[in-house]
Amino acid sequence: MTEDDLNAPDERTAGTDGALREHEVRTALLDLLAEVGTVTATEAASRLGYSSGLCSFHLRQLARHGYVEEAPHSGGRARPWRLRQHAPAADGPMQEQFGDLARGLEDESWQRWLAQREEAPPAWRHDEAFSAVTYLTPEEMSRVADVIRRALTPYQDREQRPLARPDGALPVALITRLFPLLPHPEDGADQD
Fold it and tell me: Where is this region: Disordered (predicted)?
């Protein structure tokens, strides 16, 4: 078994693998395809510094959502990808559209977890989902996000370095969304 094999997401947990970095990896892949035209997972891994298994997984996810497609090739194992000729309709900047895709995939992963939780090993049949509402300024909201990112820093290299993972570690989705709660249009005036 190679390190790429160890880094390749397990199809049963693919939606949760590296949740903090999915947006970063997919954005890098889209940027690379825009720059070079076509690329295989191995070529992308070499250029971007990720494993080929990780790149392959994210290229397939991008294809599933209509952003990339397989490029014509003359057989063999190489599987080149390219940006889809007619990508999903652009209603806003690419970064915003990609954020929508990432949130959709996060929601899909959450729904899969809820549906398949009883199939997980007993020690993993719980989650730590929570939410809170508090009053913050824009600067405070940014500081809270920075604290959360710093708290996760000690664990971020485990995706690229499987030997750094403790026994029993599984990929866990870590999703944080900080946003202001806007009044409903039917509420009329702002509420304090």
Answer: 1-20
